[in-house]
Amino acid sequence: MRIVFKALILLTVLMLVAGGSFLFLVKFEAHSPEVQVSGLPETAGRKLSFTVYAKDVRSGLREIEVALIQGESQVLLKKESFSVTFLKGSKVKEKSWPFEVEPLKLGLREGEAYLLVKVRDASWREGLKGNLTEKRLKIKLDLTPPRITLLSGTIYIARGGSALVLYKLNEQPSKSGIFVNDHFFMGYPLKNGVYAGLVALPVEDKNVRRFVIYAEDKAGNALEIPVNYYLQKRRYTSFKMRISDGFLSRKMPEFISRYPEAQKASLIETFIWVNQTLRSENNQMIAKITSRASENTFTLKGAMLPLPHSAKRSDFGEFRTYYYKGRKVSSAWHLGLDLASVARSPVPAAADGRVVFADYLGIYGNTVIIDHGLGLYTLYAHLAGLEISPGADVKRGQIIGHTDTTGLAGGDHLHFSVIVQGVFVNPIEWLDPHWVKVRILEPLKPYL
């Protein structure tokens, strides 16, 4: 009996020791919660976004507190507690909290501030308060948008036309440029805080709905100011073009051999696909190539050079409607000048620049695109071959190819386009020495 009694006592002691060990090791666990803050910028503007993440896989989360501190002021953003049971602790092992904060509305001012995050777990440590993780992160509040000074006078622009806008900023922006309707034209830094933006009004746009300079700083503060402009009248012609069976049988095999999807039940259906779908894809690619930030400094020193000894066969901005056997089948804008000389005429670069594209491009055939800086590009299409490679620097007048009939060309000629940050513009302006001097080079000169 005495042996049984001693065994019971020993068992009881062991159970108490085990229970004590459980309480000490589990309920008094010493691992602090894991806390992460993501998306918090070093400099914050009028809108501040970030996410707080907390995790404790042992005893679980007890409470969280998030606040912004500036000087003696503390603004509580979040305080949340979770249910904690005697044995199981908290069921909430991890959680994220997204925050969208407007410091001005919270009474904060420009300058240094701190984000304070406190998270406690469901441990019995610290007098049953739990283990504490505290993060104190410094941020700078910048609540003032950039100051924009418009340097240009009234901007004269026409449908399909180009213009130069000059403005000055009091700080280096994260983004700045000019909106013309829905298109954003990047501003390029010159000197002394001055920025230049070449802009364009697409030929398809008959009106200007929005013409503003936009600037945004690194903190996300943004400002826009209107640009004074005068919309010049410019008329573009419409043409009816008849598609013959001879043209179809001569030109469509080129596309069928290159594009399996061009194979249709009839050649006129192939033409419709080429003139609509392929044209759209080609123009989108051109826009993508010419919307990138120019790697070049501005290389234009005067008017662009046209194809020598050539005659103009088609104007920029023609709206063409195509008919086949008396039936309207398609339509398209003509976005360049068609210049014809003798067959296989040498094609010179219109201005100094860097080749950014040289390849076959659908309706344009063998095509070269040159970057002249400030988002200004020239395109040379229907070439006989590719005689130059991307990355090559070229000089005004340097031969880059020869005219031919590749692509959707009915006869030997050069299709010449000028593009401003993804928008086709009227080359006639850029071929005019007076226009280039007065509208582009003279305004730029003090800041280059």
Automatic annotation (TrEMBL):
<dbReference type="Pfam" id="PF01551">
    <property type="entry name" value="Peptidase_M23"/>
</dbReference>
<keyword id="KW-0732">Signal</keyword>
<protein>
    <submittedName>
        <fullName>Peptidase M23</fullName>
    </submittedName>
</protein>
<dbReference type="InterPro" id="IPR011055">
    <property type="entry name" value="Dup_hybrid_motif"/>
</dbReference>
<feature type="domain" description="M23ase beta-sheet core">
    <location>
        <begin position="334"/>
        <end position="427"/>
    </location>
</feature>
<dbReference type="GO" id="GO:0004222">
    <property type="term" value="F:metalloendopeptidase activity"/>
</dbReference>
<dbReference type="InterPro" id="IPR016047">
    <property type="entry name" value="M23ase_b-sheet_dom"/>
</dbReference>
<dbReference type="InterPro" id="IPR050570">
    <property type="entry name" value="Cell_wall_metabolism_enzyme"/>
</dbReference>
